[in-house]
Amino acid sequence: NEAAGVDPERAPHGAERIQEWLDGLVERVRSGRAFSTSAGAEPDRDYAYLEVHDDTGHHSILLFSLSRDDEGVRIRSHHFVGAADEVRARVDDVVHRRDG
What is the spatial distance between Cα 75 and Cα 99, in angstroms, rounded to a whole number? Predict the structure, then answer.
């Protein structure tokens, strides 16, 4: 989890981060509260995402980013939670850090 104040050494990684996001989705479904989902992936972009958001402005996004190096392709997962603008800024930081 790349939330502010989380020690990167203690943050969940890979499958644990994905499970954390899925658990949040299951919790939201069970709560009966209304929500919407969105997802995106493009062949020419090195990222894809799954997102859950509600009418209160709460967003939870699971972002997958790809990077290439001498050892091959690496897939990283990022989980951001917060208001739409905060989440969008954090996603842009990851995407543009790699693009530019």
Answer: 15
Calculate the CA dihedral of residues 29, 5, 75, 87 and round it to 10 degrees: 50
Q: Using one digit for the tens of pLDDT, what is the confidence trace for 37-91? A: 999 998 888 999 999 998 888 999 999 998 888 889 888 889 999 999 999 999 9
The C-alpha torsion from 47 through 66 and 90 to 60, rounded to 10°, is 60
Question: How far are the Cα atoms of 16, 21, 36, 83 from residue 55, in angstroms, in the given order?
Answer: 27, 19, 9, 11
Classify 35 as helix, strand or coil. coil
pTM for this structure?
Answer: 0.76
Count Cβ atoms below 10 Å from residue 59 Cβ, excluding itself.
20
